[in-house]
Amino acid sequence: MRVATVILGDINLEEGHPALALEYYRLGSWYTKNTASLFHLIRGYQGMARAFVQTHQPDSSLLYARQAFTIANENKFLDDILVAGRFIYEHYKRTRNSDSTLLS
User: Fold this and answer.
1) Is the pLDDT of residue 57 over 70?
2) Superfamily of domain 2-100 in the CATH hierarchy
3) CA of 46: how far to CAs of 17, 30, 72, 97, 99, in Å?
4) DSSP state, 16?
5) Given this model, what pLDDT does residue 75 score?
6) Mean pLDDT of 72-84
């Protein structure tokens, strides 16, 4: 179920339906937290971060990107560290708010 919700979130995000994508990502995150699948939790958080960019909610986007980065870093998921780190970098580049780059 958790994999399907992340995939459905990705599909809806690509189709331009960020609100529906967020519903799937949230549902997937709920399932994932209850089954301890960190890989899928990270992917769900990354999806939510992208969806919040599309809905013009940069603070929420950054929150989920940081959560994905933290979990990936704590568990040594190198690919996801790079993906989340790049997303965070692009956020600060886009908002030109480098003063708060190191704040958590």
Assistant:
1) yes
2) Tetratricopeptide repeat domain (1.25.40.10)
3) 16, 15, 11, 20, 23
4) T
5) 92
6) 95
Higher-scoring residue by pLDDT: 101, 7: 7
For 37, the token pair is: 């699948």
The vertex-16 CA angle with 13 and 17, nearest 5°, equals 70
- Do 80 and 68 form a contact (C-beta atoms < 8 A)? yes
How far is it, in rounded angstroms, from Cα 93 to Cα 73? 22
Tokens read off for 47: 């999806």
Between CA 12 and CA 9 the distance in angstroms is: 5
Closest CA to 69 of 78, 81, 55, 58: 81
Domain ranges of the chain: 2-100
- Which pLDDT value is given to residue 34? 61
Q: Which residue has the tokens 């690509």?
A: 14
- The pLDDT-based confidence of 104 (bands split at 50, 70, 90) is very low
Question: What token pair was written down for 40?
Answer: 């899928």
